[in-house]
Amino acid sequence: MNKKLLISITVMFISFALSAETITSEKHNFTIETVVDGLENPWSVDFLPDGRILVTEKPGRLRIVSNGQLSEPITGLPKIKEKGQGGLLDIALDPDYANNQTIYLSYSAKGKGGVGTEVVKGKLVGNELKDTQVIFKLSPKSNTGYHFGSRLLFVKDGSLFITLGDRGDKDRAQDISDHAGSLIHINKDGSIPEDNPFVNNPNAKPEIYTYGNRNMQGIAMHPETGDVWTVEHGPQGGDELNLMKPGANYGWPVITYGVNYGIGTKIGEGTEKEGMAQPIHRWVPSIATSSLLFYSGDKFPSWKGNAFVSSLKFGQLARLEIQGNKVIKEERLINGKVGRIREVQQGLDGYIYIITDDSDGRLFRLMPVE
Q1: How far is residue 163's CA from residue 219's CA, in Å, rounded to a whole number?
Q2: Active-site position among 28, 147, 179, 281
Q3: How many CB atoms lie within 10 A of CB 255?
Q4: Does the predicted model carry a pTM greater than 0.85?
Q5: Pair 219, 229: CB distance under 8 Å
Q6: pLDDT range class, residue 5, cuts 50, 70, 90
Q7: How far is residue 346 from each of residues 107, 173, 310, 360, measured CA to CA in Å?
Q8: What is the per-residue pLDDT for 240?
Q9: Which of 119, 155, 206, 355 fits a disulfide with 42 by CB distance 3.0 to 4.6 angstroms?
Q10: Three-state DSSP class for residue 209
Q11: Taking 90 as the threshold, does the pLDDT of residue 97 lie above it?
Q12: Please, are residues 216 and 195 in contact by the beta-carbon 8 Å criterion?
């Protein structure tokens, strides 16, 4: 049998089985339905006001999903260098997209010293990105293929947060003259907010908001408090949920709840140190956290206000009930039924969407069952 035909039949069978299966959970039962398949290592989705869905593919393609069909790749993107964990990564719509049609993309790009995370803005016109402008470049670049971070978040005042990893060189995370291993905060035109914590420090990168971060692959704003939270992908063990405070040092690699891959030896000085922030919640063993969502829709009313964390390693959604700044309950959902979950997002329709990181990746929608 033709290999492509076999893959297609397999995907159809899995999709049918998932649609037919009711997944039980403590507060909402649901099914999983396929929105579109045939994606190559999708990394992020966002939702256009007209109901279409934008999706990035790590090799460097941006596509539009409409009525279950994929568009041809959108043209006009910057030159993207796929290297290791890098490529075309996150996407976010401008808060004023309805008026300016502007989108933002994070990606890895070549430059002096190697590759590094960059962010570009551009106007989406038909199937083309126009008037592009690079508004952020990680500095310095390096030649590793690890820990690009790259999640994007607009907050209530219209400014932009960018998560960055340590690029596989852990000591960079403690150096505030280096972007790596930090949370970046800029205005949407690339300028620096006047209240950034290190803006008056001549020895620091003024875009830095927090540091001591290993590889934040999820970021979300709490819909009620406006607080910014992240999930950090730890080493072997030690994934973290953090509440981000300006100027805070989150400890990597001086403190961590993880250990060295394979050999299990200690990293740094232990799990706590004065002057370094503790996680709100942690996962030991690691679940390989990849994105974060605070659910605010009406399709799953008993989940409203819960946080959802996607997992690559176990293909899970971790549902967290939070009171104040404390996680009071965790429930693990899906548990490998769809594969490595790269992102969880809430659509404009109030449903929850997930994408899978695979060479034949898929976009799914969770549907409540009464």
Answers
A1: 8
A2: 147
A3: 20
A4: yes
A5: yes
A6: very low
A7: 22, 31, 13, 22
A8: 98
A9: 355
A10: strand
A11: yes
A12: no
- Position with higher pLDDT, 5 vs 116: 116
Q: In what order do the strands lie in the sheet with 69-70?
A: 42-47, 53-57, 61-66, 69-70
The strand ranges marked E within 18-113 are 29-39, 42-47, 53-57, 61-66, 69-70, 88-93, 102-111
Q: Residue 300: how many CA atoms within 13 Å on its side-chain side?
A: 28
> Count of alpha carbons within 13 Å of 84, Cβ hemisphere only?
17
Amino acid at 139: S
Length of the chain: 370
Specify the pLDDT at position 370. 77
CB 237, CB 247: distance < 8 Å? no
Q: Residue 261 has what pLDDT?
A: 87
147 catalytic? Reply is yes
Paired tokens of 181: 């291993």
The CB-side HSE value for 157 (13 A sphere, CA atoms) comes to 10
| Terminal C-alpha separation, the chain | 41
120 forms beta bridges with: 105, 134
Tokens 């551009």 locate to 122
- Identify the pLDDT of residue 6: 46
